[in-house]
Amino acid sequence: MNPLLLDIPSELRGERLLLRVPHAGDGAIVYPSVRDSLAELKQWMPWATDASDEKSSEEWCRKSAADFLSRKQLQFVILSLADGRHLGNIGAFDFKWEVPSCEIGYWLHSAHTGRGYMTEAIGILAKMLRDTLAMRRLQIKCDAKNQKSRRVAELAGFQLEGVLRCDSPGISGGLRDTCVYSLISSPSV
User: Is the distance from CB of 150 to CB of 161 less than 8 angstroms?
Assistant: First the structure.
């Protein structure tokens, strides 16, 4: 299978959310969400630093648009259908087309947590990945200490497979433990 030939929608709609591939100019909507959520994001996301600015957000948007076309990653901005407000980002990456499987990563503006937005966004993306790309295995990895991200994975129907101990560098130095959650479309053969 050649992923470049797959027809993948650039917009996905849910009950309250629009997931849309980022494009040029979106740095202006993404950066304020990063800035407002930086204290929380810095605990878990290596890209979230005090050096984050509108330029780095714009670069991410343009790179994400190119990666979408090349099928390296499928990144989406999460927008409120009610008012168009940027709520966060979600994406699929680390594709293993021979399985087929991929990983889902996400973050949400701190002011909008606890309302089910990310659970809805994961459901929208997972449905597309399963229905359109026939992904059999979806996974979410997060720091074992990130209780909010773990809870979102569980609410979205993902099951904890295990905890990889001391598997990668932590944000604050030292090594972190990583939880691996999965959602399997059909039983293995």
Answer: no
**Residuewise pLDDT in 10s, the chain (189 residues):** 788 888 999 999 999 999 999 999 999 999 999 999 999 999 999 889 898 999 999 999 999 999 999 999 999 999 999 999 999 999 999 999 999 999 999 999 999 999 999 999 999 999 999 999 999 999 999 999 999 999 999 999 999 999 999 998 988 888 999 999 999 987 554
Q: What six digits make up the tokens of 145?
A: 């200490």
- List the end-to-end C-alpha distance of the chain, in Å, as a whole number: 21
CA angle in degrees (0–180, nearest 5) for 55-107-120: 130
Residue 1: closest CA among 71, 65, 75: 71
Say whether 58 sits in a helix, a strand or coil: helix
List the chain domain ranges: 9-136
Determine the CATH number of domain 9-136: 3.40.630.30
